[in-house]
Amino acid sequence: MFHIFQYQPLRLITQNSLSSMCLKLMLSRPVAFAQIWKSWFSSDSLLGKKNIILMGPPGAGKTTTGRIVGQKLDCPVIDIDDDVLETTWNMSVSEKLQDVGYEEFLEEEGKALLKFSASGSVISLSGSNPLHAAGMQHMKKNGIVVYLDVPTTVILSRLKSMQVDRIVGLSPGISLKDILQFRKQFYKRWFDIRVLCEGDIAAEVVAEKVLDAVKRYQGSEMETFISTRSSRSGRSMEEDSHKFFSDVVTQGLAPDGGLFVPEGGLPEFTAGEWQGLIEATYIERAQVILERCIHPADIPASKLAEIIETAYGENFSCSKIAPVRHLAGNQFLLELFHGPTASFKDFALQLVPHLFAYCIPRSCNYLILVATSGDTGSAVLDGFSRLHDTDRQRIAVVNFFPEDGVSPIQKSQMIGCQKENAWSVGVKSDFDFCQTAIKQIFTNSDFTGFLTVEYGTALAAANSINWARLLPQIVYHASAYLDLVNQGIISFGSPVDICIPTGNFGNILAAFYAKMMGIPIRKFICASNENNVLTDFIRTGVYDLRGRKLISTFSSAVDILKSSNLERYLHLIANGDGQLVTQLFNQLENQGHFQLRKDLLEKLQQDLVAGWCSEEDCLAAIHSVYSTTGYILDTHTAVAKVVADRLQDRTCPIIISSTAHYSKFAPAILRALRIAEINQNPLSQLHLLSSYSALPPIHWGLLETLKKTGNGDHQVCAADTNVLMSHIETLIQNHFM
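Now predict its structure.
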């Protein structure tokens, strides 16, 4: 870590400036100057009285971009180095730096900013302006700060081509790369908008991107959400029909029973923008991607960065967060189990509670309802229990799970993760009942209205039906592809296939969204266990639950017959035909089946292929992989491995989502490893597995949870929606009243 005064600032000395007379007038009499240039603007200007403030490292192209933006807007252009600092000091920046030294230079530079005032201008900051907090706070009061985010390798190349003697203040013994990296923390602190500037991008293109980004920042009307069952053609003019990100995070399920989707689709990244993220950390990639998906009016970039850092900074046991590991041949594992509860659910559920807490109004309490087939329960309990004290007092969560439909360790984990605002309730039924019951509760306006009036409490959802749950999953699919590029396995643009153990269709849908945003994924392989309704559907176009009974398997998280997020995918390939989606899912609910039209099935089969795995093949795969590699797959990853072996064509790499740590399914793993006698105590099972010294090692968080809590206590209720509602009311009374 470098301290702020351990090196001197970088400075590009330029010769272009505005008229010194204009600048002196602006600096000494800003009101008079504002009156002079006010006539230059029309009343419908993009800026109005705001400034566009360009920020970034030396060599980012702030000055050139600023001139172009100013020309396009027909407004004043101000370069802080040339037009403010040198005018104020009556000497060049380099002379000032040599005269006073680095520490005093920063103070003098900050003082100049504090005296500076302008409106309706394009302002290019110096590279070191963001290091002075008071100066930047002053600038932000009347400006939109645009961060020109250029990859460090590109900046280094540009600075080298400019020759070293044009850079002032570089201290011996500290690399230029380290200085640029150090400054990023200050750039990230102040910006309102990020503009990605890939290596060979022209300044004209950067200027257009700046204008587009400012337009997006100024108005959020284009980033509304609709229900998958909406029958409206085009946008309704009714005020209450506009749902923004903050609305869908808190509401979860649409009032008509559908799922929220972005009306304008997902943002697209250019190939160059993706390539600029190849060397970025996981947290940096997450922030860039999520900034494009979440409008700053809902969550400002600075707050989003804070939330992402909180979610992923210390809660994951692997510094890479979601590492990609070579398994064998052309197969790679995306390890999604390094979070605190050992499953891919942690990626969303370490993040979503903080998004939720930021978005909800302070005047109401919220109870989060969750149905889980295994991994979601402990992840959501852990995530919401990590909220700040004040948020835990107004936000609570109840997790409903099939009492006899999860693994013993999963059950112990859900019970052990209970806290003062987080509870688990076992239900004497299967996951499909739990999920259906929650949907019925949400659409029961009498009950939800009663809770609001009587207890001041609203209900919300944290299942993958909540749009915010899908966004973090997009990040790790994109990140996996970028890691393969960074490792030299593929070049950007080369295709990969994805294979995912699939139950509720959320994880594989997120991968499809990543493709829509520009990641070159070729085929999506949907892997099912013996509950293979999705396999049959993808192969035939017929979704048929008639006569099917849920089978309890070793891969319990995908023991699902009604795949909720499939509705979002069908809405997408049906070009937003909400009436068709409503018809299909009403038919499924009332008659137990539906059939896709031929044209939609053809579309679906261009994206998806599917297969399923028996229990015997699942255990055999675990044994085989361990015998040949020393690596232990969990039961869900083994399902995906079996299906991938059958369906891949081996013409490109295939990324298999490893969705949970094998420790969670110790009895099945020990059986697969052909251990004759298995102790029924979950902690003993983990100790036995740890003796194998396998890869990956036993999950630290799971082991600690079991050590601390044992089985504990939890409530169990009958499979009756009215009984669940009674439990909900009681929990609200006990926590909020």
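The longest strand covers residues 395-402.
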